[in-house]
Amino acid sequence: MTSAPVFTPQIPDTAARKVEFISLSHLNPSTELDPVPTRGIDLDYFRKYVRALEDGGYDYTLLPYGSNSADSFVVASAVGQLTERIRPIVALRPNTTFPLVAAQKLATLDQLTEGRAVVHLISGGSDAEQARQGDYLPKDRRYARTAEYVDLLRRAWSERAPFSHEGEFYRFDDFGPGFAPHGETIPISIGGQSDQAFQVGGEQADVFSFWGEPLDDLRGEIERVHAIARAAGRTTLPRIWVTFRPIVAETDELAWRKAHEYVARIGETFAKSAYGKQKHHQHAPQNVGSQRALSFAERSELYDRALWTRTAAVTNAAGASTALVGSPETVAAAILDYVDRGADLVSIRGYDTLADAVDYGKHVLPLVRQELAHREATGTRGTLQSEHLGNYGEDYRRFAAAGQ
Fold it and tell me: Where is the Luciferase-like domain (predicted)?
């Protein structure tokens, strides 16, 4: 059994004080549990999903990008018009859109949403996927291109006079001034686990994103990216975004029954290459994030309070796939463990996509926010983490093993 840490009332020095929640928008009912053969947008479903995020109290939604998926800019614009508060995050690959055009598109989205636009830059972890849209740049150079891309985005939004540029990847003459965003700038997020990703993210990103990892490992990665930021002379450090796939039920025991059922169905779906891009993820992954996820899964299935890695193992770590398993209280306490390590943007999206988004909004987010409000009001931690032990208690470990 994992040894329980001592939960004192003192708030850790590393804890984030402000926390916001992200989900991923789904365009149709197809899931890893129940794949539906479709490449289209179910507009009624999409509207219902986005409304569930708004009603559930999420702060952001990610609009993913793939070579065979809907265009993230267009979908983000739709999200902006269907909601009043949710901030759309456009996933963007630098190889797909010239940086000055991307700056124009993002600024337009930002104006239409009155300052809600965010962009998440994907340098590209798979040579094969990049090649599907004509990008043959080696992986290490893709991050160098991202660095140049970030500079040009910010210059396009801020320069008050025309400027020219001749770099390694982009060249143009006498551009500008560009179309301005609603405010001074637009937040830029970068993710990845390679050395190049850390360097670019630490030096330039407003947000650096991770998949769910064991607590101590993630804390080491946060310290690494922040050290790079400080070495670059930054006084404002990148915010930390961490992603989980929670499996939640009324009790820990019921959650584990659901988890074992889910992982069997997800494994079958993946084996049949029946969902999304899974047919492209059958071989050893190139990206370091997936390699790390598989390494954690090989070492153990359970970490810390509630982190479960078998979902990563059965999908070959194809994207964010590590789960948090338990009752709403256990999962909320586990999220707070990551908040205490420095995560201030928490992405939670489920395997039963719409139902999970609704359940998280009703049962998980309020518990986390209640604890954060208690901390702000009293300067001390509440009792949620000390009372709902998850894997730090004997019963939870027994529930986890029952379905194996």
Answer: 37-344
Choose between 20 and 404: higher pLDDT.
Answer: 20
**Residue range of the domain that includes 75:** 20-402
Q: Is the pLDDT of residue 280 over 60?
A: no
pTM: 0.94
Closest CA to 355 of 5, 20, 45, 98: 45
In-domain check, residue 14: no
In this structure, the number of other CB atoms found within 10 A of the CB of residue 66 comes to 17
CATH (domain of 260): 3.20.20.30
Return the percentage of the chain with pLDDT > 70, whole number.
Answer: 96
Digit-coded pLDDT (tens) for 140-186: 789 999 999 999 999 999 999 999 999 999 999 999 899 999 999 99
